[in-house]
Queue: 2 jobs
Job 1
Amino acid sequence: MLEVNDLRVAYGAIEVVHGITLNVQAGECVALVGANGAGKSSTLKAICGLIPAKSGRISLEGRDITNASGHAIVKAGITMCPEGRQVFPQMSVLQNLAMGAYARRDAEQASDIDEMMDMFPILRDRAGQAAGTLSGGEQEMLAIARALMARPRLCIFDEPSLGLAPKIVAEVGATIDRIKKMGKTILLVEQNAAMALRLADRAYLFEAGEIVLTGTGAELQKHPEVAKAYLGH
Ligand code: ATP
């Protein structure tokens, strides 16, 4: 579904992603793991058109989307659930969900909102409430639901567990697992390597802007270096 070939990303003169190559097959959950600053978020942002690729090629279902605009990439079928949730704080929960479907021109938005509220009952209870007044966990659920409202073929999650209490992190993990079982294709960046590798069919380990290891989630969980550096045992 997604192919990234020899991608380089730079901020000004400073290159932070040094020619990485990865792919995500339809129906897979793929995780990018690695330390702070290793280049995972920059990779995601380049895929989503939020920052330019310096060189390399990104394609979705065979179609070149390298350096396409963010809104064109959403229309092409990729949505991002961003780090820090970034809900629209002054808009209601309902309006945030409607914004997720902004690029769609079909008549099924109302029924999709209903479906999201069945999936996340707390959003139904809070439908008229300003999104900025929700708890962190509720905002994460809203950000995930808003991303799904675009009916993406590839759903990207950037650090969904960041700053959340352990009980809520477990809920976020279970939610991503449900989305995977719905048949969605998922690309996940997560500091919580234990959770990411449990959820992922395959994973790539990033270090200093390069991919240094790849394998199934289970293989990476068992890899001695990963276990020592990222899983704490
Ligand atoms: P994190 O989990 O902290 O987000 P990451 O693996 O996602 O880490 P990136 O956020 O992609 O890493 O950062 C890669 C490098 O790029 C880091 O050295 C970071 O300081 C730098 N960087 C990130 N954003 C910018 C920016 N807007 N301007 C300049 N440098 C940046």
Job 2
Amino acid sequence: MDLGISGKRALVCASSKGLGRGCAEALAAAGVSLVMNARGAEMLEAAAAEIRDRYGVDVRAVAADITSEDGRASVLEAADAVDILVTNAGGPPPGSWQDWQRENFIKALDANMLTPIALMSELMPGMIDRGWGRVVNITSQSVRAPIPQLGLSNSARTGLTGYVAGTARQVAEHGVIVNNLLPGIHATDRADQLDRDVSEAQGISIEQARRKRQEGIPARRYGTPEEFGQACAFLCSQHAGFIVGQNLLIDGGGTNLTV
Ligand code: NAP
């Protein structure tokens, strides 16, 4: 399918590996030029070079912490007037409700709610002026069904979801389309870390921890960054112009919901 976005420009945050990289790859495959970002320069430069070589699109790499004001400023300078924004950052650490103090919440809100909001605030006015834009926020299945030990993530990401629900409906008339993608478990370093944590906590092997988690997913496997990226590219495509303010679960059926 021709996504109709060849020649557009995108900023894909937190994209040297994992889900962000999957999104960057799929957009590049559709002919979109990229600004990629992550904190670690080496892996980011390597990912940018691979994508540039594979798809022949222009790729700029900006090594910066997207959750800090300075980091965002340097990313935004490179992104300038992008047509497509994919927001992403690392998730907050797990824990229990008694552990979390004000500063833990401020950090989580900054990373997973206020950072995507700041990026949208900066980049959407230009999209509105040009009459076309696409925003995809990578959130989590936890906004539909909370994961108790990820209370910091549940709190910050549902805050972002509330903001998007209203804002998407204010900007749609200008051709700017905003949606959220909600990953379930995907085979990335983050999932490996979760499996390692379970293996240590329960005294089982990492393979056993993985199999146990996969048994709880109707598709009986983890998702891949590639298929996640394809869904992102579709939401950024010309065909997605009537999909406004939605929260699309990509979780192999893992979140047990009727609607
Ligand atoms: P990942 O494989 O660990 O990749 C994270 C990427 O983000 C890396 O490129 C990392 O590079 C970059 N990054 C992290 N913090 C950053 C920051 N402050 N500024 C700029 N770049 C940053 O993680 P993932 O699995 O793709 O997860 C992406 C997001 O989806 C996370 O918020 C995660 O909580 C959420 N999620 C993931 C899953 C899953 O199963 N994978 C499920 C639900 C939700 P550097 O470290 O070099 O910065």
